[in-house]
Amino acid sequence: MASRSRWPSTRSALRLFNLLPSYNLSPLLYTVRHNCSVAAAAEVPESRKSPIQILRTAAEVRSWRREQLAKGLTVGLVPTMGALHAGHMRLVQSSMRMNDATMVSIFVNPSQFAPTEDLESYPRDFDADIEQLAAQDGDNREVDVVFAPRVEEMYPNGIPLNVAEQKGAFVTVQGLSEQLEGRIRPQFFRGVATVVSKLLNIVTPDRVYFGQKDIQQTVVVKRLVQDLCYGSVVHVVTTSRDANGLALSSRNAYLTEQTRQDAAVIYKGLQNAVMVYRQNTAAEKIIEAVVSTITEKFDKDDIEYVCVNDKDTLEELETVHPLKGAIVSLAVRVPNKFGGKTRLIDNILL
């Protein structure tokens, strides 16, 4: 048995990452790497006569928040990067059920993108996002406001994608950001922790909502809230899926219909992991079940990692304790519409 329950090894994973196509999903990405300003790439357009109040500045949000406090109303925040889908709407519905007022933020956060990633080509459709949010209602509640800041509002000192060139204050959650996604995308959780800190400082929500699909992110954010003494409660909502089990993601827009069908093996592999776990708690056997299922449709070299980790510490496990369970998470590169590869992540709880 391997000393650590991860497939492949760290060295192999990094080698695969360097060799395989990255997020270069469009020739346009060349411009953001070299000449295009980050602000232009991440900008949210003005919406035409929005049916929902749209706030652009921290000052506007704080003014709105003071009004809710004066009325004694609770506020839920759903942070998003736009390109909204049914999974986001589940988060919104959860907030509307639990709070008097709901705010949705739409901000494509540059600091969580590396220079080689898809900041410019990340899906954006602000007007469609607003239409979806305006259609949400439940128990006579609705989405009250959208916070769609400009890049310079969130990063007044600018935000080059190269970490070495960045200036200003950033937040890192040590011990939870370096493994799994952090091993492949080393600046990702620094960017996530920073923008979430900014949003919590600006909005001061009673509750904040994240999806289980990005499970490492939820662990990082929970620790961030705990360690920095934020007053918000973090709620994690179960993953929304297509009929074939594919986890909903904004980046699914990059996929062909054939790839969407083939990608059903990802969730199938995770379900097989649960079946194996019921008979054998060895992480090695659980991982083998996932890998063997995914390779029915995709090359083994396209599996960046499959890992079994502790739910709280993200420590890699060799054996799963039946009374505690674990997280089985993975990342797979699948063919996209542009002739390259798109990373899909998913997970399941044991």
Automatic annotation (TrEMBL):
Catalytic activity: (R)-pantoate + beta-alanine + ATP = (R)-pantothenate + AMP + diphosphate + H(+)
Alphabetized InterPro entries for the sequence: Pantoate_ligase, Pantoate_ligase_C, Rossmann-like_a/b/a_fold
Pathway info: Cofactor biosynthesis; (R)-pantothenate biosynthesis; (R)-pantothenate from (R)-pantoate and beta-alanine: step 1/1
Gene3D superfamilies, A to Z: HUPs, Pantoate-beta-alanine ligase, C-terminal domain
EC number: 6.3.2.1
This protein's UniProt keywords: ATP-binding, Ligase, Nucleotide-binding, Pantothenate biosynthesis
Keyword Nucleotide-binding carried by entry: yes
One Pfam short name: Pantoate_ligase
Coiled-coil regions listed in the entry: none
One GO BP annotation of this record: pantothenate biosynthetic process
Name listed for the protein in its UniProt record: Pantoate--beta-alanine ligase
Organism: Lipomyces starkeyi NRRL Y-11557
